[in-house]
Amino acid sequence: MDSLASISGLATGIDFRALVDQIIQVESDRLDYLRVQVSDGQAETAAWEEVRTLLQAIETASEGLAEGDALDVFTTNVLGSNPGILGVSANSDATPGRHLVRVLQTATREVMGSALQSSRTDSLGVSGSFILGGTVVDVAGEDSLLDIAGRINSLNLGADSIGVTASVVGTEGAYRLVLSAADTGEAGLGALDTSGVLTDLGFFDGTTELKNRTSGGFATDVLADATSSVGSLLGFGSGAPSRTVTLGAGGSAFTVALDLGSQSLTDIRDAINTAAAGAASSMFAELVPDGSGTRLEITGTAAATDDGGVLQALGILQGSRAATNQVVEGDVLTTDGSTPATAASALASLYNGSSPAGASAGDTIAFSGTDHLGNEFSFTHTISGGDTLQTLIDRLEGAEGFNGGATVEVSAEGRLSVTSATEGSSQISLEAFAGNENGGILDLGAFDVTTEGRDRQVSIGRDAIVEIDGALVTSASNDISDVVEGVTFDLLGADPSSELEVVIGRDDAAAVEALQGFVEAINAFATFVDAGAGVTGAARPPLAGDAILRGIRDRLSFALQVNVPVGATGSMRLSDLGIEITRDGTYSLDTAVLTQKLQEEPGAVRQALGSFGSGSTSAITYLGAGSNTTPGTYAVNITQAATLASVTSSGFGGTYVDDGVPDAMTVVHAASGAEYEVDLVNGMTLEQLIETLNSKFDGESNQVVTSERTLYSDVLGTTVATDATTLSSLYHGPAQSSGFDVGTEITFSGFTPDGSAVLETFVVADPNTQTLGDLRAAAQSAFGSGVTASISNGQLIVRDQDLGSSQLSVSIGADVAGNAAPFGQMLVTQTGSSGAGLVAEDEGGQLRIRSVSYGSANDFTVSYSAGGLDGTSSLGLAAGSYSGLDVMGTIGGEAATGVGNTLTADVGTAAAGLAVRISGAQTGAIGDVTFGQGIMANVFDVAEELLDTTGDGSIDSIIKRLNESIDRTEDRLFDREERLEARREQLLQQFVALEQAIAAAQSQQERIAAQISSLPSTRSNS
Question: Residue 570 in 3-state DSSP?
Fold first, then answer.
């Protein structure tokens, strides 16, 4: 373009650019109607977005009221001398009340540490496998501590985490592998040593103990099923343990070959029973369902000897976690250059190496060291004639040395050896400096740590124990939420001596606040609508007169006007709760009226606001509904009525006929775990049998604590110990002496049945005359007159004399090296509990035993043991397991699930979550259940429907349509504006062309004029 022509009006004198702008502006003004459409649409969209926000507030405020969560708010208060040990919270399922609580023990997680290793990265030279958390961990010979830790931690990824973490801790030259359970509880790490790796690493001490003790013997861990090979269930790719193990002890012992790579629990049961029968042993094995799996229980023995980790892999045995005592030792001393010195060796006769040490009277030996706690000591011994190593031992063990905190002896190699009297981490140390003033060369050596004092079990995994309203509760977690419905107890500490009172009360103020919040939300919406649903100051609000908005207001108003039936004959409206509509269309709340209603009729208030239901016949009782239950009436059809677990005798003549020795009937109630034993005495009538059984069922069971170990009175471990067995003759296995010497301290600790702490010590004065009976009597004395202590079959049994829940727990320790728990663990073999949920009754002249509650979860077993002659056939009631049936049927013609006599509609049906209790044995169509909704439930449904992002009539759909319309209008406007810009360009080009043409003509004119003016003149001169 010519630069001159591009200057507007340069040639024509016309400002064509301004002229074009005026032309385009006129045409642009004709598009203002589209711009108004966009602006109005945006204002309407903003208004509907405000409507959405207001409805969301109504939905939120009404939801908690509809579901009852906002009404069922509770306060908690802990009263007592030590309330800081207990935290309590209550949710909407709680009930006002008071509960007495004593925290006896908090749950802890198990942590174990290995022996020290010099490097984190060097190969350890150990190989094999072990089990953690039910999963096999393989170790290769070239693996280091870090390799093993990494392999363990890799098993914590994903949903099948083993629940054990591993870390390597320590400093240069002293590292250990630490295993930590992720969860608290006595299940702990689930560490089982199947090939000696854990023992080689120092986690176990090389001995084993029963892991799963039962009242009649022991059991395996729970496995997923009883038909797959144990090795595959545990995750052994290959090399599952396969050896011959020994069950029983002494003359009753027998061996059985087990191959976990090929045998299932069923195969192992059969192999054990076959071997027992061949050995004429009364021992037997049986499969017992347990939760989601099966365990194998072996009855008739408390002894088992492993081989190749077979029994550990099964979970019958586990490695002992006993702590070690620190040992420091000096150099080898001899009496002739080769014969090791003893405690009786004279100092003057000692050799260092091949040369006489030359110790003589007047020489000195300076001793210094630290005890278990690091307290320092020092003294100097001046050698006298006749001094022996025992002379030095006596001074080192005495008040000026370790002061009883260590045992000093001469080892078999001739080393002066110091062993800490206390297990676990220790600061025991010793230095000895021989002065050799008379020219000798005596040197007791540098006292190095030869055995590290440490706790293999850094932290014991244990369950929490708490007494709640007289019932003893055991939990793997410190958060207990399954005892009192709706209440969670958070155990922060333990104090058995402090009884706390937990007060649960309704928080009426919170309920009032929730309803006030709803009133404010509904008023905000009403104000918005009544103000014309527009922006303040606007000439005409964008939603003024909108029919949809008026419809929403009307739907909410209608929902709030519901008159809800409550109770048997009454009804309730919003006004009954103190909520009234005012002249301006908003609502007001009288908090005093509402508070009174909440206090007087909390259930009716909840029903009026939430939901309600009823059955059409006495056979149907409405229990509740789910969040997705559709209101309506549903037919209930029963295909299987619920039944009670029950057994009835057959052919009983009315009097039990047997010999003079009572038979024993044992009834075990599965749900409570309570076990009841009844003596069947010759001549008992049906009435006497019922009275005897019900006195057991209606009453409670005793808590019984039994020692894990069986003690023997002979070195071969074949004859069980009795009260008369002397302490010096006690063994806990072949050639395994209990080690009770003069001065041995045996400590009894735990809790008495009423929760009082026990800590008593029995000191052995003469093990050759004192007996196991004396030790039993000491246990009896320590735990008081409320218990009975006895020795039976070589085991110590402590029984709570009172029936019912009990806090009785027993622990027995001893300061015996290698035998810190001489009785093993003291296990609760029978829990003190309340009634078993069973009843005995007369059924047409026959004895009937049945459960109190319906369904398959309340089964029980009956078994017998004959006294003299077996007279149980006279009773005509067979031994076995007896189960009830769960109700089965449909609700509204669709699937439902039965538990006991409760039937609940399945997810995915219209009645989903609707639960009813079915009474009687009738099947088929037994009636209807009606479910309805209260005021806030109706409001919530309206708001939820309007806010549904997928519904065609929802607020989102309105906003979506508005936005789509705005987009279309904006597209039209953009298209028209683009055309105007093209028109502008066209006009500009035309004017530019005109400028160019005129400029060219003017230029041509100027050239012609110039040419003319330059022509020579033609005028002549005269």
Answer: strand
How far, CA to CA in Å, does 720 sit from each of 249, 281, 490, 582, 732?
10, 17, 45, 89, 9
Tokens 């979550």 correspond to what residue? 913
Question: In sequence order, which residues have a C-beta less than 8 Å from that of residue 148 and are 6 or more positions away?
Answer: 124, 137, 139, 166, 177
Burial 496-519 (b: 16+ CB within 10 A, else e): bebbbebebebbbeebbebbebbb
Place of tokens 């035309």: 990
From 146-150, 361-365, 542-546, 834-838, the region with the lowest mean pLDDT: 834-838
SS3 370: strand
The model scores a pTM over 0.70: no
Among 54-58, 833-837, 1016-1020, top mean pLDDT goes to 54-58
Instruction: Print burial letters for 748-777: b (CB count within 10 Å at least 16), e (below 16).
Output: bbbbbbebeebeeebebeebeebbbbebbe
User: For residue 92, with 0-12 CB atoms within 10 Å meaning exposed, 13-18 middle and 19 or more buried, which class applies?
Assistant: middle
CA distance linking residue 401 with residue 746, whole number of Å: 25
Give me the chain's average pLDDT, please: 87
* pLDDT band at residue 708 under the 50/70/90 scheme: confident
Cα 167 from Cα 183, distance rounded (Å): 16
Question: Could you tell me the CA-to-CA distances from 774 to 417, 631, 709, 727 in Å, in that order?
Answer: 34, 73, 18, 9
Rounded to whole angstroms, the Cα distance separating 908 from 891 reads 12
Cα–Cα distance for residue pair 125/493, rounded to 1 Å:
43
Tokens coding 625: 């509904």
CA distance 926 to 624: 19
**What are the pLDDT digits (tens) for 537-577?**
456 678 877 888 888 888 888 888 878 777 655 788 888 99
Residue 608 is classified by DSSP as: H
- pLDDT for the residue numbered 259: 93
What is the three-class DSSP state of 909? Answer: coil
C-alpha–C-alpha distance, residues 311 and 243, integer Å: 10
Q: How far apart are CA 661 and CA 680, in angstroms?
A: 9
Tell me the mean pLDDT in the region 587-606.
88
Closest by CA to 236, choosing from 162, 149, 128, 152, is 128
Q: Is 591 exposed, middle or buried (0-12, 13-18, 19+ CB in 10 A)?
A: middle
Whole-angstrom distance, CA of residue 824 vs CA of residue 603: 54
Distance, in Å, from the CA atom of 421 to the CA atom of 22, rounded to the nearest integer, reads 109
**164-173, Cβ contacts within 8 angstroms, sequence gap of 24 or more:** 164/132, 164/133, 164/189, 164/190, 168/120, 170/116, 170/120, 173/118, 173/119
Segment 993-999 long-range contacts (CB within 8 Å, at least 24 positions apart): 994/12, 994/16, 995/2, 995/4, 995/5, 995/6, 995/7, 995/8, 995/9, 995/10, 995/11, 995/12, 995/16, 996/1, 996/2, 996/5, 996/11, 998/11, 998/12, 999/2, 999/4, 999/5, 999/10, 999/11
Phi first, then psi, for residue 379 (nearest 5°) are: -160, 165
- For the segment 453-464, the average pLDDT, to the nearest whole number, is 88
On the question of pLDDT at 113 being above 70, the answer is: yes
Of 275, 297, 279, the C-alpha closest to 288 is: 297
Q: Residue range 275-287: average pLDDT?
A: 87
SS3 805: coil
CB environment 129-143: b (16+ within 10 A), e (fewer): bbbbbbbbbbbeeeb
Give the pLDDT score at 1022: 46
pLDDT digits (tens, 9 = 90+) for 191-200: 999 889 999 9
Residues in the chain: 1022
Cα distances (angstroms) measured from residue 343 to each of 350, 381, 616, 739: 11, 16, 94, 21
